[in-house]
């Protein structure tokens, strides 16, 4: 079994054994909280898969279900929450794992870096000791050997070794977030979930921590799920972007396409709200999105986005639309998207009829310019902030 707790490292992965099974495969995941207000359908039938080394940015407004997905991957949801579908981690169903296996999988298979390290760290324990704890637990080595490893990890995440004996309150916010990343890496997981891991940091420190995550993920061939409100940060850090709205995926595809040429009106609005360096129009005129996301306990009929959608049609009020292929690697859940899987890429919003009128034409022209640019430059040039560790 891949997650046998008895092997030296904790497990032998299917990838180490040469399997091509996706590392993470989420299939029709549906999560409903039970609360005093009744049932809250937080996640509604989402699916995606990741191979080692893949990175997926999960975006969407507050309350759309991003953290619920993250918590489900490590079965950290409150007791009583209804979960259906499948979450396969390295070929094993997380939802059916025994607690013994789950203990190994947490840290050694997948780990989560949350926002606000101060609340996640023990205030009265030195940081190296905290990083060493999961190593002792999972690898059954002595505390001093584990602390040596912890100090090595601290160096890898750019913390000076003398900080090993510091307490969390003696570190800056960025340093604490680095400690959390070192902890997440401690047992060499195959998957890291970063849930708003850089949101509370100032722009310079955020850039450093993002660069660090990118470097470590690339060096170690780790799969990354990164959750953020900030689509531009996700587009800069991840290869793929998935946009959630009211518990559903409304668009999923290569980052430069979803950020630069979104097909779903919600994903368009979200990406238009963030500036792109080198695009003065977007910088001068960042657009907001009117209205609020729906109450998950009282979702609108049809497409949940239709009450806020600038291009909604009558049908949208009654027809539920699932993801449609825009291209073989790109999907959007909008009735206006004409699925043309055999056509070459670079369908533009107006070509798909997603947005009509002068604004849409302007936007479309910008999207085409960006598209041409992105083909030359690649997705990395969508960055809006300096992300080189050396620069900051
Ligand atoms: N323990 C819980 N009990 C009941 N409802 C919950 C619980 N946790 C989250 N919810 C609800 O589930 C929905 C999804 O919440 P979730 O935290 O996953 O969203 P999110 O996209 O991560 O939001 P944010 O960006 O604000 O963290 C929200 O409507 C939220 O109020």
TrEMBL record:
Main location: membrane
Entry-linked Gene3D superfamilies: P-loop containing nucleotide triphosphate hydrolases (3.40.50.300)
Region annotated Disordered, chain positions: 277-299, 340-392
GO biological process: peptide transport
GO molecular function terms noted in the UniProt entry: ATP binding; ATP hydrolysis activity
Compositional bias of kind Basic and acidic residues: 359-392
GO CC annotations on file: plasma membrane
Lipid bilayer topology: Peripheral membrane protein
Residue ranges constituting the ABC transporter domain according to the UniProt record: 24-271
Superkingdom of origin: Bacteria
Alphabetized InterPro entries for the sequence: AAA+_ATPase (IPR003593), ABC_Ni/Peptide_Import (IPR050388), ABC_transporter-like_ATP-bd (IPR003439), ABC_transporter-like_CS (IPR017871), Oligopep_ABC_C (IPR013563), P-loop_NTPase (IPR027417)
Pfam family, one: oligo_HPY
Family: Belongs to the ABC transporter superfamily.
Protein name per its UniProtKB record: ABC transporter ATP-binding protein
Organism: Phytoactinopolyspora halophila
Native organism taxonomy: Bacteria, Bacillati, Actinomycetota, Actinomycetes, Jiangellales
